[in-house]
Amino acid sequence: MLQGKIYIIGAGPGDVEYLTIRGQQLLSRAEVLVYDALVDDRLLHLVPTNCQKFNVGKRGGSPSTPQAEINQLLVEQCQQSKQVVRLKSGDPFIFGRSSEEIQALIAAGCLFEVVPGISSALAAPLLAGIPLTDPVLSSCFAILTAHQPEELDWDALARIDTLVILMGGRHLEVIVHQLQRYGRSPQTAIAVIRACGRPQQQVWIGTLGDIVEQTAGVSLSPVVIVVGEVVGLRNYLSLGMLEREFQVQVSNQSQLATQVLKGKTVLVTRSADQSSQFRELLQQEGAEVIEMPTLVITPPSSWDALDHAIANLADFDWLILTSTNGVDYFFERLLVQGKDTRALAGVKIAVVGKKTAASLKQHSLQPDFIPPNFVADSLIEHFPEPLSDKKVLFPRVETGGREVLVKELSDRSARVVEVAAYQSSCPTAISPVVLNALQKRNIDIITFASSKTVQNFYQLLEQALKTDRDSSINSLLEGIGIASIGPQTSKTCHQLFGRVDVEAEEYTLEGLTQAVVKWVTALKMEN
Fold first, then answer.
1. Same fold for the domain at 265-297+427-526 and the one at 299-425?
2. Is residue 518 among the annotated active site residues?
3. Over 118-158, what HEC string results?
4. Domain 122-236 architecture
């Protein structure tokens, strides 16, 4: 059994874009997430759907879980052999109270790793165009928290060139008073940076003499305060940043004006471990997205057939991969068998779809053939060479997949070896959040990217409505647009729902997004 481990990760100053690659990798395979309040909500979508989440607060002025309880929670989850991510804002070792948690983990014999993050103490001045050091104006700087200003040595702090003050929003007046009391001029430059690194970032520039008046009545949390003459350099150094901010604001306003899906809620049916790419595409168009796992991907019931094929790869002419799951499980098993991509020397690879090709590229391989229409039928129609007597390896889903591809290959005299590489099954129950949204008519469009997601969605709804005699699937979906990624998925939608409202012209997630946008645009024009 895999031993439990705690990963203490810095989430950065705010926006998910400032998370480190290491942090993202660990979040993607977390079994438990224990997180503070001051993180971008989009970070919570980077964990697997079955990840258990604990919100422990830690926002200034709001209720938070006591530190002792957080320590105990981490120990308990680790001792259950879980892979636990402890997500903190900024950097874990800058006012993050990580030392208390680490001491508890050491005392309990728990494994742990600390992953650095970008602290707002460094990011906020930079994003506001303020350098913390300068050959003339600032030979040193100090970072402090004003959470308890009465405990600070203001006499010493007032003599430091540049101060970076965290958690000082509620005590700005005290900070200004104490610095002037111990010798700083009322004309000393000061910057107040709210929500750094986020779209709503705000910056106030003033002096110790007027900054309190400037920010009166404004809730400043979360805030970083910079005091020192370097603040004045912003006028010279941030011209490019300010121009970029203006361009971004204009771009955002233009984008908002053209976000066709703004005000629409889209239900995305997907596999349990699917990435958030489709969500992001829809959100860029203004949609509110609800995700519903309708497929659970697991290893096959036996690896024997795939292992035997891998042991004899040199006998094959072609390897055909039709899904990212097929790619992932094939190469995972290749490594288990002590081989790597060199074992495929002499074997040509055909893939169906851009996502499958991208997944293959992660293994440093380029496909020899991609059909133009991203569907299995097109693969046969446009295959680049005669298939007669060619030996073809086809790692695929164990049950429930389409048989057309194998039949067409065989009809062209190819010798096809089908092997189970993975299994897909239906989740045990529909998400209560999704069912409630459907029943309250809060969903405008449902998207399907495969026939299997249609079948499992129907099965989950049918199961949920067994005890509700007044509801049927068709009545529940009345008025909701049904969007399909391609002809085969549409065929299944017609069989089960009796209709399809949207079908992608290009059979990709990008194509499905554009088809939904086009459909909604047409509806708006009609109305």
1. yes
2. no
3. CCHHHHHHHHCCCCCCECCCECCEEEEECCCHHHCCHHHHC
4. 2-Layer Sandwich (3.30)
Give the Cα separation of 477 and 445 in Å (integer): 9
Q: Which residue, among 349, 343, 341, has the nearest Cα to 319 in the 3D structure?
A: 349
How many Å is the Cα radius of gyration of the chain?
Answer: 28
* pLDDT, tens only, 338-397: 999 999 999 999 998 888 888 898 888 999 999 887 666 778 888 999 989 899 999 998
Task: Write the single-letter amino acid at 406.
Answer: V
Q: 167 an active-site residue?
A: yes
Q: Which of 15, 40, 88, 167 is catalytic?
A: 167
In CATH, the architecture of 265-297+427-526 is: 3-Layer(aba) Sandwich (3.40)
Give the range among 46-55, 218-227, 397-406 with minimum mean pLDDT: 397-406
Pick from 38-47, 100-109, 509-518: least confident: 38-47
- pLDDT for residue 250 is more than 60: no
Tell if the pTM clears 0.90, that is, is over it.
no
Q: For 76-85, 133-142, 233-242, 350-359, which range has the lowest pLDDT when averaged over its residues? A: 233-242
15, 36, 91, 328: the active-site residue: 36
Copy the structure tokens of residue 308. Answer: 């035997």
Q: Is 337 helix (H, G, I), strand (E, B) or coil?
A: coil
The dihedral sign for the CA sequence 246, 252, 256, 258? positive
CA–CA separation, 242 and 405 (whole Å)? 56
Give the orientation angle of helix 304-311 with respect to helix 324-336, to 10 degrees.
Answer: 70
Closest to 236 in 3D by CA, of 137, 311, 130: 130
The catalytic position among 58, 88, 264, 452 is: 58
